[in-house]
Design a protein that fits this description.
128 residues; 19% strand; 3-stranded antiparallel beta sheet; 6 strands; alpha+beta
Length: 128
Amino acid sequence: MTKSSGFTLVELVLVIVLLGVLSVMIAPRFFTASGYDQVAARDQLIQLLRQAQLQTMNNSAECQVVHFGNNQSWIPASTAQCSVLTSGEQLLSFDVWGRPATSVTSVTLTGETTMKVCIEAEGYIHAC
């Protein structure tokens, strides 16, 4: 009796099928960046909200309001544009204790998936 070394045909076919299934499931994640872009946009929104919150708490003369509209958020560059709204925009501001001064308690970002940023009543801003 001779000892053979190698793989059987069943083992080779099974490995090829498993590699095919894995490549179909995982490959699209490497070729699209929209999921990563959405996480980056959420993190940028959290930073903008925290910046406006800190500016308000420090009584800064800069604009202390965050504008939201069309899946974008920004703090206006000039104080003259702080409270100017265009259609479809919302404002979010904070009081001197860092608590939200408006009724907005969460902001939803829509894209490949839906992500939310929550602002708690005591001023804690986080991804939820």
